[in-house]
Protein backbone atom coordinates (compact mmCIF):
# COMPACT_ATOMS: atom_id res chain seq x y z
CA UNK A 1 0.00 0.00 0.00
CA UNK A 2 1.28 3.48 -0.89
CA UNK A 3 2.12 5.62 2.15
CA UNK A 4 -0.18 8.56 2.82
CA UNK A 5 -0.96 11.13 5.52
CA UNK A 6 -4.44 11.73 6.89
CA UNK A 7 -5.38 15.30 7.83
CA UNK A 8 -8.54 16.82 9.21
CA UNK A 9 -9.27 20.14 7.52
CA UNK A 10 -11.56 22.95 8.73
CA UNK A 11 -11.58 21.73 12.32
CA UNK A 12 -13.72 23.42 14.95
CA UNK A 13 -12.30 25.76 17.63
CA UNK A 14 -11.46 22.84 19.93
CA UNK A 15 -9.65 20.95 17.16
CA UNK A 16 -12.47 18.47 16.62
CA UNK A 17 -14.52 17.70 13.53
CA UNK A 18 -13.08 18.72 10.17
CA UNK A 19 -13.11 16.81 6.89
CA UNK A 20 -10.59 14.00 6.49
CA UNK A 21 -8.12 14.26 3.62
CA UNK A 22 -5.65 11.72 2.30
CA UNK A 23 -2.33 13.10 1.00
CA UNK A 24 0.17 10.95 -0.91
CA UNK A 25 3.37 12.97 -0.56
CA UNK A 26 5.27 10.91 -3.15
CA UNK A 27 2.88 11.11 -6.07
CA UNK A 28 5.59 9.81 -8.40
CA UNK A 29 4.98 6.35 -6.95
CA UNK A 30 1.57 6.36 -8.67
CA UNK A 31 2.01 8.46 -11.81
CA UNK A 32 -0.95 7.08 -13.74
CA UNK A 33 -4.43 8.55 -13.43
CA UNK A 34 -6.09 5.14 -13.32
CA UNK A 35 -3.86 4.04 -10.43
CA UNK A 36 -4.53 7.28 -8.58
CA UNK A 37 -8.25 6.95 -9.11
CA UNK A 38 -8.18 3.38 -7.85
CA UNK A 39 -6.34 4.37 -4.67
CA UNK A 40 -8.69 7.31 -4.04
CA UNK A 41 -11.64 4.93 -4.35
CA UNK A 42 -10.00 2.42 -2.01
CA UNK A 43 -9.17 5.03 0.65
CA UNK A 44 -12.70 6.43 0.51
CA UNK A 45 -11.96 10.01 1.60
CA UNK A 46 -14.07 12.73 0.01
CA UNK A 47 -10.78 13.78 -1.65
CA UNK A 48 -7.26 12.39 -1.91
CA UNK A 49 -4.29 14.52 -3.01
CA UNK A 50 -1.21 13.32 -4.88
CA UNK A 51 1.80 15.63 -4.53
CA UNK A 52 3.78 15.73 -7.77
CA UNK A 53 6.30 18.43 -6.77
CA UNK A 54 6.46 19.32 -3.05
CA UNK A 55 8.77 22.32 -3.57
CA UNK A 56 6.59 23.96 -6.24
CA UNK A 57 3.33 22.76 -4.69
CA UNK A 58 2.13 20.83 -7.76
CA UNK A 59 -0.83 18.64 -6.75
CA UNK A 60 -3.45 16.33 -8.30
CA UNK A 61 -6.86 15.88 -6.61
CA UNK A 62 -9.28 12.92 -6.77
CA UNK A 63 -12.64 12.03 -5.26
CA UNK A 64 -13.50 8.31 -5.00
CA UNK A 65 -15.05 8.61 -8.45
CA UNK A 66 -13.33 11.39 -10.43
CA UNK A 67 -10.41 13.80 -10.84
CA UNK A 68 -10.91 17.45 -9.86
CA UNK A 69 -9.19 20.51 -11.29
CA UNK A 70 -9.62 22.30 -7.94
CA UNK A 71 -11.10 21.63 -4.52
CA UNK A 72 -11.06 23.69 -1.34
CA UNK A 73 -10.36 21.43 1.61
CA UNK A 74 -7.61 19.49 -0.24
CA UNK A 75 -5.84 22.76 -1.04
CA UNK A 76 -6.10 24.09 2.52
CA UNK A 77 -4.87 20.80 3.98
CA UNK A 78 -2.00 20.38 1.53
CA UNK A 79 -0.96 24.03 1.94
CA UNK A 80 -0.64 23.42 5.69
CA UNK A 81 1.29 20.18 5.17
CA UNK A 82 3.76 21.47 2.56
CA UNK A 83 4.07 25.06 3.86
CA UNK A 84 4.59 26.53 0.37
CA UNK A 85 3.56 30.00 -0.90
CA UNK A 86 1.31 28.57 -3.60
CA UNK A 87 -0.17 25.37 -4.95
CA UNK A 88 -0.31 24.52 -8.64
CA UNK A 89 -3.57 22.83 -9.66
CA UNK A 90 -5.00 22.12 -13.12
CA UNK A 91 -7.41 25.04 -12.54
CA UNK A 92 -4.65 27.54 -11.74
CA UNK A 93 -2.19 28.74 -9.12
CA UNK A 94 -3.68 28.86 -5.62
CA UNK A 95 -2.09 31.37 -3.25
CA UNK A 96 -1.55 30.13 0.31
CA UNK A 97 -0.64 31.62 3.69
CA UNK A 98 -0.46 30.52 7.31
CA UNK A 99 -1.86 32.95 9.86
CA UNK A 100 -1.63 31.66 13.42
CA UNK A 101 -3.99 28.72 13.82
CA UNK A 102 -5.54 29.20 10.37
CA UNK A 103 -4.32 28.16 6.92
CA UNK A 104 -5.67 30.21 4.02
CA UNK A 105 -5.92 29.71 0.28
CA UNK A 106 -6.89 32.25 -2.39
CA UNK A 107 -8.82 30.97 -5.40
CA UNK A 108 -11.48 31.94 -7.93
CA UNK A 109 -15.14 30.94 -7.91
CA UNK A 110 -15.03 29.80 -11.53
CA UNK A 111 -12.51 27.11 -10.56
CA UNK A 112 -14.99 25.41 -8.24
CA UNK A 113 -17.04 22.47 -9.53
CA UNK A 114 -20.75 23.19 -10.03
CA UNK A 115 -22.78 23.33 -6.80
CA UNK A 116 -26.44 24.05 -6.12
CA UNK A 117 -26.50 26.67 -3.34
CA UNK A 118 -29.87 26.21 -1.63
CA UNK A 119 -30.85 28.70 1.06
CA UNK A 120 -33.19 27.78 3.93
CA UNK A 121 -35.07 30.02 6.32
CA UNK A 122 -33.32 28.88 9.49
CA UNK A 123 -30.39 26.88 10.80
CA UNK A 124 -32.89 24.46 12.36
CA UNK A 125 -34.23 23.61 8.89
CA UNK A 126 -30.70 22.85 7.68
CA UNK A 127 -30.07 20.69 10.75
CA UNK A 128 -33.24 18.69 10.08
CA UNK A 129 -32.44 17.84 6.45
CA UNK A 130 -32.21 14.19 5.41
CA UNK A 131 -29.61 13.02 2.90
CA UNK A 132 -31.24 13.41 -0.54
CA UNK A 133 -31.05 10.68 -3.21
CA UNK A 134 -28.12 10.80 -5.66
CA UNK A 135 -28.39 13.63 -8.13
CA UNK A 136 -27.30 17.25 -7.95
CA UNK A 137 -24.55 18.47 -5.59
CA UNK A 138 -26.40 20.51 -2.93
CA UNK A 139 -24.95 23.03 -0.49
CA UNK A 140 -27.75 23.74 1.98
CA UNK A 141 -27.28 26.88 4.04
CA UNK A 142 -29.07 29.39 6.27
CA UNK A 143 -28.13 32.48 8.21
CA UNK A 144 -27.43 31.95 11.90
CA UNK A 145 -26.64 35.65 12.31
CA UNK A 146 -26.78 37.61 9.06
CA UNK A 147 -25.37 40.82 10.52
CA UNK A 148 -22.31 38.94 11.79
CA UNK A 149 -21.94 36.83 8.63
CA UNK A 150 -22.48 33.57 10.51
CA UNK A 151 -23.82 30.71 8.37
CA UNK A 152 -25.03 27.17 9.08
CA UNK A 153 -24.40 24.77 6.19
CA UNK A 154 -24.47 21.12 5.16
CA UNK A 155 -23.20 19.58 1.93
CA UNK A 156 -24.67 16.65 0.00
CA UNK A 157 -22.46 15.59 -2.95
CA UNK A 158 -25.14 13.37 -4.50
CA UNK A 159 -22.52 11.33 -6.34
CA UNK A 160 -23.54 7.90 -5.12
CA UNK A 161 -19.90 7.06 -4.28
CA UNK A 162 -20.40 6.46 -0.55
CA UNK A 163 -19.88 10.09 0.52
CA UNK A 164 -23.47 10.99 1.41
CA UNK A 165 -22.56 14.18 3.29
CA UNK A 166 -19.37 16.21 3.08
CA UNK A 167 -18.24 17.44 6.50
CA UNK A 168 -16.50 20.60 5.24
CA UNK A 169 -16.43 21.93 1.68
CA UNK A 170 -14.12 24.79 0.79
CA UNK A 171 -15.18 25.09 -2.85
CA UNK A 172 -18.85 25.48 -1.91
CA UNK A 173 -17.93 28.07 0.74
CA UNK A 174 -15.98 29.92 -1.95
CA UNK A 175 -19.01 29.94 -4.26
CA UNK A 176 -21.32 31.17 -1.49
CA UNK A 177 -18.88 33.95 -0.57
CA UNK A 178 -18.63 35.01 -4.20
CA UNK A 179 -22.42 35.10 -4.51
CA UNK A 180 -23.01 37.05 -1.29
CA UNK A 181 -19.98 39.31 -1.69
CA UNK A 182 -19.05 39.32 2.00
CA UNK A 183 -16.90 37.58 4.58
CA UNK A 184 -18.48 34.51 6.17
CA UNK A 185 -18.00 32.36 9.27
CA UNK A 186 -19.49 28.99 8.33
CA UNK A 187 -20.33 26.09 10.61
CA UNK A 188 -20.74 23.01 8.44
CA UNK A 189 -21.55 19.37 9.12
CA UNK A 190 -21.22 18.26 12.74
CA UNK A 191 -19.12 21.24 13.82
CA UNK A 192 -16.46 22.16 11.25
CA UNK A 193 -15.56 25.84 10.81
CA UNK A 194 -14.71 27.62 7.55
CA UNK A 195 -13.78 31.30 7.29
CA UNK A 196 -13.98 33.21 4.01
CA UNK A 197 -13.35 36.70 2.70
CA UNK A 198 -13.83 38.19 -0.78
CA UNK A 199 -10.72 39.79 -2.29
CA UNK A 200 -10.21 42.23 -5.19
CA UNK A 201 -10.47 41.16 -8.82
CA UNK A 202 -12.69 38.12 -8.24
CA UNK A 203 -10.48 36.26 -5.77
CA UNK A 204 -11.81 34.70 -2.55
CA UNK A 205 -9.87 33.58 0.53
CA UNK A 206 -10.94 30.43 2.37
CA UNK A 207 -9.33 29.48 5.66
CA UNK A 208 -9.51 26.94 8.45
CA UNK A 209 -7.66 24.87 11.01
CA UNK A 210 -5.78 21.70 10.02
CA UNK A 211 -4.81 18.77 12.22
CA UNK A 212 -2.57 15.80 11.34
CA UNK A 213 -4.66 12.74 12.14
CA UNK A 214 -2.09 10.09 11.30
From TrEMBL:
GO molecular-function terms, A-Z: catalytic activity
Record-linked InterPro entries: Phenazine_PhzF-like
Kindly name one Pfam family recorded for this protein.
PhzC-PhzF
Highest taxon, organism lineage = Bacteria
Q: What is this protein called?
A: PhzF family phenazine biosynthesis protein
Amino acid sequence: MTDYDVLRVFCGPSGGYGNELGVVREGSLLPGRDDRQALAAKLGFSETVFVDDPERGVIDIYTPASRLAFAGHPCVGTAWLLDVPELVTPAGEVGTRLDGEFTWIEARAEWAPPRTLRQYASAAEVDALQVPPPGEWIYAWAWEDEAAGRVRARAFPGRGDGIDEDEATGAAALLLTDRLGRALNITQGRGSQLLTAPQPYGWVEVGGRVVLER
